[in-house]
Here is the input.
Amino acid sequence: MKELNIDQTLNLVSCEARELEQSSRYGGLFGIAFVTEGEGVLSCDNDSWHYEEQAIFLLSPGHSFRFKSFYRTNLLTIFFDPFRIAGAADPFNSFTGMFRAVRDLFSVPSFLRQKELQSETDRLAVTHLVRLIETELGHLQENSRELVANSAALLVNLVKRNLSDALRAEPAAHYSEETESVLNDVRKMLQQNEHLTIQELAAAMNTSQYNLNKMVIKGTGETLKAIITRYRAELPRTKQLDLQA
Here is the structure.
């Protein structure tokens, strides 16, 4: 397993799939996994996906996964600190642009998805960037950290550009009482005014935008933006049911 941590917020891991399975260090982080070699089936809970080389998976905290490889499977995975995603608007965060893109990417309410890039040009670019990062991880030099960080930022934006319209509904989950209480407050306020911003929601709950987002991520494994997107999508159906009652 080859690893590189940049500023305690960005973790890059190149390893065999079984090594990542057995590691508990990254279970609380968001991750984008690129299959660099191999073929098989990735399972999580009741879902499974066939994968082969160049497949991309989005991983969210709190969900274990298992690879059944037809032959050796290697991955390059970029892991992101969820609290940094919550603070993506912080002007003092040197990875602000990258974490904003990650936040938007994971606003799709689904914790693990296999994705294919729509653009052939972007697929080729991603393949070359992944190879570049793996080479740097294998032979770290003086400028490797900066090169890897810039390459990771470009990878994130390429993936986001190709997946930005992939919104998909997800079944309701069961959370702790504290998390459910926060989510209920958010849902009620959006029912009263669906155009409320995150900042306005946080102010109404007497907390900061950062802390509210951090609380939601910790409790659900999703960004607050993902929760709001889902609740807003449910509003027309809820209002129709109220009229029929």
Observations:
- The two ends are 58 Å apart (CA to CA).
